[in-house]
Amino acid sequence: MSGTTALACHGYFEELSRVSTSNPASMASRRSPSQTAGVESGVRGWGENIFSRMDTAGTPSLFTKKGLQAAMMDWAMRDEHFKTQLFRFVDVLPSLTSAGEVSRHLKEYLGDEQVNLSAGLRTALKAATGASWLFGAGVKAQVTAMARQFMLGDDSKEIVATLRRLHDEDIAFTVDVLGETVVSETEADNYAARYLDLLSLLAGETSKWPQPCKSNVSSRGTIPQLNLSVKISALYSQIHPADPETAIEKTSSRLRPILRKAKELGAFINFDMESYALKDLTLHLFKTIFSEPEFASEPACGLAMQAYLKDSEADLKGVISWARLQRHHVTVRLVKGAYWDYETVIAQQKEWPIPVFGLKAETDANFEKLSVILLENADAVEAAFGTHNVRSIAHVLAQADRLGVNHRDFEFQMLYGMAEPIKSALLQLGCRLREYCPVGELLPGMAYLVRRLLENTSNEGFLANTFAKGASREQLLRDPNAMVAEQEPRHRTSPATNPMFRNEPPIDFTISAEREKILAAIRELRQQIGRKHPLVINNKYISTRDWLPSTNPANQNEIVGYAAQASIAEAEAALAAARAAQPDWARTPAGERSAILEKVASLMRRDKAALCALEILESGKNWTEADADVAEAIDFCNFYAAEMRKLGKPQRTQQVPGESNLQHWLPRGIGVIIAPWNFPLAILTGMSAAAIAAGNAVLIKPSDQTPVIASRLMDLFIEAGLPAGVANFVTGPGSTVGAHLVAHPKVDFVAFTGSKEVGLKIWETAGRTPPGQVGLKKMICEMGGKNSAIVDSDADLDEAVSGCIASAFGYQGHKCSELSRLIVLADNYDKFMERFIAAAASMRIGPAEMPGNVIGPVISREAQQRILKTIAIGRTEAKLAWQGQIPENPNACYVPPTIFTDVPPASRLFREEIFGPILSVTKAKDFDEALALANDSEFALTGGCYSRSPVNIERAKAELVCGNLYINRGITGAIVERQPFGGFKMSGGGTKAGGREYLQNFLLPRVITENCLRRGFAAAEE
Amino acid sequence: MSGTTALACHGYFEELSRVSTSNPASMASRRSPSQTAGVESGVRGWGENIFSRMDTAGTPSLFTKKGLQAAMMDWAMRDEHFKTQLFRFVDVLPSLTSAGEVSRHLKEYLGDEQVNLSAGLRTALKAATGASWLFGAGVKAQVTAMARQFMLGDDSKEIVATLRRLHDEDIAFTVDVLGETVVSETEADNYAARYLDLLSLLAGETSKWPQPCKSNVSSRGTIPQLNLSVKISALYSQIHPADPETAIEKTSSRLRPILRKAKELGAFINFDMESYALKDLTLHLFKTIFSEPEFASEPACGLAMQAYLKDSEADLKGVISWARLQRHHVTVRLVKGAYWDYETVIAQQKEWPIPVFGLKAETDANFEKLSVILLENADAVEAAFGTHNVRSIAHVLAQADRLGVNHRDFEFQMLYGMAEPIKSALLQLGCRLREYCPVGELLPGMAYLVRRLLENTSNEGFLANTFAKGASREQLLRDPNAMVAEQEPRHRTSPATNPMFRNEPPIDFTISAEREKILAAIRELRQQIGRKHPLVINNKYISTRDWLPSTNPANQNEIVGYAAQASIAEAEAALAAARAAQPDWARTPAGERSAILEKVASLMRRDKAALCALEILESGKNWTEADADVAEAIDFCNFYAAEMRKLGKPQRTQQVPGESNLQHWLPRGIGVIIAPWNFPLAILTGMSAAAIAAGNAVLIKPSDQTPVIASRLMDLFIEAGLPAGVANFVTGPGSTVGAHLVAHPKVDFVAFTGSKEVGLKIWETAGRTPPGQVGLKKMICEMGGKNSAIVDSDADLDEAVSGCIASAFGYQGHKCSELSRLIVLADNYDKFMERFIAAAASMRIGPAEMPGNVIGPVISREAQQRILKTIAIGRTEAKLAWQGQIPENPNACYVPPTIFTDVPPASRLFREEIFGPILSVTKAKDFDEALALANDSEFALTGGCYSRSPVNIERAKAELVCGNLYINRGITGAIVERQPFGGFKMSGGGTKAGGREYLQNFLLPRVITENCLRRGFAAAEE
Fold this sequence. Notes:
2 copies of one chain form a homodimer. By secondary structure, the first copy, chain A, is an alpha/beta fold. Chain A has 34 helices and 34 strands. An 8-stranded parallel β-barrel of chain A has the order 1-4-5-6-7-8-9-10, surrounded by 7 helices. Chains A and B meet through α3, α12, α16, β17 and α28 of A and α3, α12, α16, β17 and α28 of B.
């Protein structure tokens, strides 16, 4: 978050946009002054008209300020922290199974000392302490009542009664099905079934209605009474940005029965628009499926478009062109967009361009611009304007007047339970009005409620300004274009913590060109596969007698390359080269050393697709994991370079007159880098780059499993201009070459990432100081993990399920950070496990090169056999709850992803690192036991906790023993600088790769004190 | 230095002072407005009078701006950096033995790219590159000529000729003998002899003069023609602040022959005033010796007093009272003070109150105030006003008028070669004038020259303002009191680098009350000596079966105390206590933990004298060393407490919206602290305090040699409120108890300071990970040193001799930082060694409790025998150049301090750590060889270089391999935070005690990532 202010929330129907200056033809913005003046006076006319009718209709119920509920809403508008706490409480509420739990959470959220409460609220809350049972029940009833204002519930009778009431008020409807995030194919099936059921239910009702709803009658005729809004994300659980084809196929197959039924019933199907990541997919699916002959003219259909997206104008024009071409008069529901916070945050986290406009007024302006486009194309598309903003509405009416569009030939849409006075005014004016009516259970509806509450309390929201803050009509009706011109552009990115470093963004695989690059790189790699990769000593390539093949684990017949196998003599030659090169390298200014690493980073960026292809084929990483490994390698180069630039400048230890005291950092000398295969580029690059940036010379000993990727790194070092001997590449057997180098008196430090067994052995070797060794041998040691996540009884299961799936099975569990022990609170256990196993069962397994596959092969035949053996042992220790289906391919090293439950703490399953796609689940009776179970391990690397209890979150932060703790998110995927990575106990020496202190491991501090007084004369500061 | 501006230089006769507001009776300041007005008009009158006479006299030669010399002075006034470089060049010049050397240094100082040169100077300097020989010689001649303006040289004939010339101009003289800093008793003898010779020489001359100089004739009669200024620091080389008695005795014994001769010749003896540290001693000596019957009435005498000192008013009144009492009409030479920079810097370095006024105008005002006091007491003391400031002079004359003092009854003093027009004006006005005439060689005179140059170029100096900058008479004659009122108080202390930490000041032993405290504490300690000091487990005192005595190494019959001897069982009990206590301690907020350590620091401050007494008796440290150890212990507590307060606040790793990423630090667990005896309090406290501050629990295992001091630390931990079990005190044999604990699987880290042999063994033990051990055992390891200092051919020998003596022999060489190998450039070798050995021979050796003793006993009989054996071996390897005389005391463990020369690099003397008062000296033919010799060691702890070659200083900084490098100062005495201490190679693991990163050794980093997005709503920053 930037600073201490929350990102402003723009409500669902309440958003905005600057007219694109890149399109000079755009009429809404580039209208002539006289035209603007004419339209503006029309807007004001309609606006005043609507306002005067609203005055007689009164204030919407939410703003009447009676009772505790209204007091809370009022306070939420005044105090940002209270609002956060209140809405978080509302969010967790439905998951709380007892009044005592409700009371506890209420106290945790609102009893927090940081929460500023009005006197009345404070008193009410204190009372809760006394009679939690009573109070808890009361609060739940209050919030349920609040939710009922915005949702129709899940009782069929109530739903149809409400829709009938609307019908009687001349208000049309569209029904939306509220639901949890779809995390499995079972859930997608259920969702699709609910759409079908709902169609039947609603058709049964609407067919009874004597005449069409007035709002469904236009000058062209009658529109379907039955209108259903569907969400694409509900129809397929495994949507993968890199594999839109599969997503289209899967969603289509669940959509077709719905469309058929709609056709049969004469219903209207609308596609809702969700997050930006799904936008192109949704547009594509809409155009594809409604181009299918079966659906080319029926059912009636439409889709929503979000004016807050910078893409929206182009997308709208695309839809209009498509509709003209197809001669399909579809409806476009123009909204402003409801995920502004989310889109902004996610883009910033990924360092992607922010897809939404920064200013509320920009979105409002864009809404007006798109309104004009819709009205101008009324022949091709039907317009539905989804807004509660009187200015936006008045603008539509004024533009319709200007363009001669009949006011009955478009509709307005508003949310059920909101903005009643505006609805009343529009009906009085003879406009068509449709309400968006969510149905479903309270629990999954809570996200919807929170969004409504945010909208109603937003500082920038039209409703709050109108009904709660008493803004003047003049203000409320202002031209948003004028407001854009007045406002400072919003800071889209938060101020950088570190001006010298930015993370490499992940590839946005929703962009087809990016997908094409990877496919092309895989093809290209296959054409030059199977080469020999020699040693590198003094920047010279040295062949060896023996060569070890490195194979594709998804097809062991495919040899990715051969690695040279160094002898002791060659290792000694490499060491001699490093020793010869190091003094000059140490003298090279830190900035020059850093520049070479930055060059390596830019070469990796250039070669990103090729490196990803290698990762995919040699290490069996899927596309996303492959990209993440390359991006992390780039980050390591840039981050350590930036850090070394800082450390390269001596730091003053203390300000004292007459004496200069500066701390410098010296390189340690010669290091051996021993890297694993699981992050074949990133970890190798990280340890090497840190050592090299610090002015050391290194011997790089990569894993036998991924020498080809490693040799690419060495090539890039040379290409970037690293002087001969500074990095030397020594593939070969760890037991001989590795052991020889680690024990060598001429080696000053060892940077190791790998297993506990090897780590401890190297640590012990480093402890011995053989004759001829210059100093104490430094060891940087990262070992394994046996990581836990706790799922608390109030956890958000939508997040917990998908986060734990990704953490447990991502890259086949081949991560030291992987989730190995899942600890689920008893209260939540059955519910969570049902969804969790279903989600696991939905994962796609197969070769990593197929972009939709989440699970690929394990790294090697040996790993496969070892893990299978562990599974066999596991069957004797615990209950095998689920096991995945793997492709039948004798040449591939697949292991079925497996979930064990009832795993006892004493079992090997619970205690030993597996490093494969095996998850142990243990039930905990309470949070104390959960913490104890999580901490019952010899490792302390990563850990996680999904909870919505502030107290339990604080306990997890204080008590979970691990190097990297993640709250309410997955426990893998640490990002350089953001999540310095590493653990302790048997997980490592307490170093933090990608952290601010990491370079110190490769350096020695040196303090230089200079007396600046001469003859009693203190010169100016030296 | 504060910021980038140099401390302003106030010239010798050119200083200033605010009237003391604490003395309402003080007349100069609290004069009534009418009186002020009257005096001020008198001042202006006299001022205008003087100025008008000066106008006819012209500009002093230095400001005539002709030739290179004048161009340089002019440029120096414009560019601060150039001035520094120029004056440093002037400073080094006399030590340069060839024109090539002169040219090289000139280029190094003024060819520096940072030096901003005028075009003319740049050209001249470029020319120097071509013909260094010629140019070098030319420059030396130029500077010599410049020096000749201010000094009379060392040729007897020239001296007497100059004095005769002055006599003929009616100017009286006082002669000052320029000389090197007196670093040995030989040099003090020589200095005294020169005073005697000079008296004879001058008496021979003055006796020939036909009549007394007019300036020596007052209304009361004739003053001695022969006037000699003596410096107390020249008369004894071993002045020790804690032992003024010896200083009085030694200086007196060298003074008496001088006074006798003066008496015999009718000469006048003036005591010059030097640094503030010598001020009380000088005053005391003056009063003492001139109270001796022999000198109670003769010779005529006087002393200088410095108006820039805040003490000066009280001191002046003390002298006047004494003179009245003694009926001895002494002369007081009132000057402003010449060491403003030095006094300010030294006080700031030591965190002592700054003894001088901050503002130039304050000193000027104080000069006026003291002038009035002198004039008012003209009956008791004779006034001599030493100033070149027309305002100060005019003020004297105006006040004399007001008080009715005859203008012939006081004199003015000015420096030879300066302010000629003012002298001329005063003579015209009939005032008495004396010139201060330095005689002596160019080399030792260079400091004097630099001071004069600084005075002439000072921004605040009267002369520069008058003659070079053309200030108006109005400005020049302004009342300094008015200027003080207008000016902002000067910042006396530089802005703190670390607002949370200040170093503990050393005791100022010049204050007699401070000396008394130590003496009393030693007496008190002796009354309770010989007690038993039990173990401490869980804050309970536990006695053991065996007790080991700890004796005074200066008298082994004196048992300072008995240390309990833990068994393995007791060690296990202590470990169990630590393990039980640690979790709660870890949870205690960092601020509370820090507060306890800050309390320990304040208790140590309270008990400082008692702790010093223990150090003196148990470890044989002299007073200064004892105090330094206690102060460092206080610093460690406060510094680590402050650092932990910082680390206690989690640090954001990266600013990213929607996610909070914070790095926390966790304690490591249980540590064993193994400390040496040589800094029995500081090192033990440092390692313990760091571990404890970080939230660990510790087992403290002090050295067998100093358990009593260690047990005092444990007492203070308990008194300060450290919870039971957090620190446990386990004295006992290292070979059993120590080894057991180090290898123990329940021990998480070991902090060790001691020998290389033990360190390597512990390092190896820590490398092994026994079953049951939680993590990799962390080892913080500080070992020995074999430290070198290089004395370059252009080194300032005054500084090099005393710095190397202190570094080699301080605390009997019992410091890991001690100077063990002195490498002297051949060019300088003979000269340096002569002074160096003489200085060594002047050191006082004996029991540490006698404050004047610099060298005490070594720590134990065993150490004595070992070191004596090393000396015996050394005799076979090298040349024994000098050996000290030790007291004959069979109960004491003295080792004679010893200097070997011609020490070959292959010898054991050169290679092995001795840890005693033995210094090896090796001659190097050039700087390359010196660096190679210094780096030829398995250790890399401290190092030093004395050089005035900017290039060689940079080379030393870049190439000398050591953890702490000291340029142009001693190589011991690192101060917490200022000089983070520790080395590498076989000196340690690269940790820095007292440095910003030190606490990290006792902590584990932990990163907590929290997803702050809920339902797409990003809350305000968590």
